Amino acid sequence: PNDDMRAAAKRLLAQVGNIGWLHGSAEATGLPTGAMDLVTVAQAFHWFDRAAFRQECQRLLKPGGQVALIWNDRLTNTPFLKAYEEGLHTYSGDYEEVNHRNLGEADFRAFFTGEYRLDRFENSQLFDLDGVLGRLNSSSYAPVAGTPAHDQMTALVRREFARHAVDGKIAFNYCTLVYSGRV
Hints:
Oligomer: single chain
Helix content: 25-40%
């Protein structure tokens, strides 16, 4: 996480005593060599320099250690989620470029050594309107606040929420993908 994200996490998790905070990156964590049984990455692997991250994992992991790469793949199996996805394609300037779905099996074969596995878990989150807007605005691919694209995407979310919400909530349905193996 960047400095602002780390500061927010420190505030939110101030009562948790077993968390350490470091300034680092996926490619240079600052953690001790051979200290980890498992390296996990959630929603971020597609941003990394994969070769440098692989080397860092090799340095960090104990013999037999593994890496787990995790994404919540948002489904488009409801009218609201279809409209939301179409809005992102229309109003987000870089949605296609930064989408984790751009990764393919060749990327995973190149990253992992030998066999790796893919597990899938279906789940959902329920959001009120503020939650949907917060989720949108926390996404790296969201249109920039104050731009016409952001205003149009926000209007789309409000309109579709009003049309499809049940008891003031919308379900975001996901298939969580977990790729795991050795590097």
